[in-house]
Design goal:
Layout (H helix, E strand, L loop, with lengths): L5 E11 L6 E6 L2 E6 L8 E5 L3 E4 L13 E3 L2 E5 L2 E4 L2 E4 L1 E4 L4 H14 L1 H10 L9 E2 L16 E2 L10 E2 L6 H4 L4 E7 L3 E9 L20 E2 L2 E6 L3 E3 L9 H10 L2 H8 L3 E9 L14 E10 L4 E2 L2 H10 L3 E2 L2 E6 H4 L3 H8 L11 E6 L5 E5 L1 H6 L3
The chain binds adenosine monophosphate (AMP) and manganese (II) ion (MN).
Length: about 375
């Protein structure tokens, strides 16, 4: 599912904050967001900027946030984060529709075409980050070119990028999926890593660029092509950058993944989290020098879908790979019946008995999955 950062949302409730006379809480879907008092009424639409929205300083509408601007990826602007005010968590930025002609213009156009009611519904399904030049903030070592100036190949288009929708954006999930079985796993806080193997006889092979086998001997296997990617980049085997880059290949070689995937002789992509002492802030607390790949999914390249979670666990074990910790398989109603219940459950310990980032729920019968990030993690990490 494509992440939508800037959306039109309906305020489902407004609650006062004890002892505060200038602010109150607005609820939109599964989010609670502190707003100026009397800015919104229940049932009203607003423009909602989800956490991790990066708002560009050039747009004068963000001038009021100027004292909190940061530099990121060559741009100046404001990163929307979780924070607490008067003991209440606030996530996202909710602003009046009227501040955004880009949005009201679209609404007007939809209204002319479809009538008022349908226009409101359609507008809520649109996303406005493009129109408002809002980007998704990401830790830099995940991003194209983040650790290396040299141009790099993007992750092959035949592989689904790892991404998880936040449960707050799926307020109806607990009713609609309550009897369905989900795998509950620990969300690990490292960097997304994908290793793939494409057989020589697969029609997907032509999507890959030519490579120089002398420079990238492991990439060219007798029966197909092997590759190692971060979330966005297909990393060259001869990349000798000092930062996080080489860890991907080092970890892949340590587990002999090229040989192992070539021996399986199936066009598959193993996706997991690269974690270790030099990755991100080593939230999981691994000892110095430790790095490993924790599998969470296997993408079937020819079928263009994920293997069922249980099969993924079995395959990881067969290849001698670690898998992210699996809490178990349960009907959704036994895991949680509401967003707040799931967020409660997301708090808790992960690997190494440390507080975890959160949990990921994967439906066993389809590609549907979503995440719940612990609010205490978000607050602690300034996210
Ligand atoms: P985020 O880190 O908030 O962008 O959430 C999505 C990312 O979580 C994915 O791209 C994965 O790299 C990562 N992740 C960590 N643990 C898991 C897990 N158990 N299942 C799926 N994704 C995971
Ligand atoms: Mn992450």
């Amino acid at each position: 599912m494509l992440r939508r950062l800037v959306t039109v949302r309906k305020v489902t409730d407004i609650q006062p904050i004890k002892g505060a006379d200038r602010i109150e809480i607005a609820f939109v879907d599964g989010w609670q967001c502190i707003v100026k008092k009397e800015g919104f009424r229940k049932g009203q639409l607003g423009v909602f900027f989800e956490i991790d929205s990066f708002l560009p300083a050039e747009d004068k509408r963000w001038a009021f946030l100027g004292s909190n601007f940061i530099n990121w990826n060559g741009h100046r602007g404001f990163r929307v984060k979780s924070h607490k005010m008067r003991g209440q968590i606030s996530q996202g930025l909710l602003l009046p529709l009227g501040d955004f002609p880009e949005v009201t213009g679209k609404l007007k156009q939809l209204e002319d075409e479809h009538g008022r009611e349908e226009a409101e519904e359609l507008a809520q399904k649109s996303s406005f980050e493009g129109a408002l030049k809002v980007q998704k903030w990401e830790a830099m070592d995940n991003k194209t070119g983040g650790w290396n100036e040299t141009p790099q190949e993007p992750i092959p288009s035949f592989i689904r990028k790892t991404d998880q929708e936040r449960c707050q954006n799926l307020p109806n999930v607990f009713e609609e999926w309550k009897d369905e079985i989900f795998q509950e796993s620990t969300k690990m806080d490292g960097s997304s890593m994908t290793v793939y193997f494409v057989r020589n006889d697969s029609d997907k092979l032509q999507a890959l660029p030519e490579v120089d086998a002398a420079k990238q001997p492991t990439v060219v296997q007798p029966n197909g092509r092997f590759g190692v990617c971060s979330r966005n980049v297909d990393i060259a085997e001869d990349n000798n950058d000092k930062a996080a880059g080489p860890q991907y290949w080092r970890v892949a070689k340590k587990s002999r993944l090229a040989e192992q995937l070539s021996a399986l002789n199936r066009s598959l992509a193993f996706q997991g989290e690269l974690c270790g002492s030099t990755v991100q802030s080593n939230f999981e607390g691994f000892p110095a020098g430790f790095h490993d790949f924790f599998v969470f999914a296997v993408w079937d390249i020819d079928a263009q879908r994920y293997l069922p979670p249980k099969e993924t666990e079995v395959m990881a074990e067969q290849l001698g790979l670690r898998h992210v910790p699996v809490v178990g398989y349960f009907p959704l109603r036994e895991i949680a019946t509401s967003v707040s219940g799931l967020l409660q459950r997301a708090e808790g310990v992960g690997l190494n008995k440390r507080k975890r980032e959160g949990i990921v729920l994967k439906h066993v019968g389809s590609d549907f999955s979503f995440k719940a990030i612990s609010n205490s993690y978000l607050l602690k990490h300034g996210e």
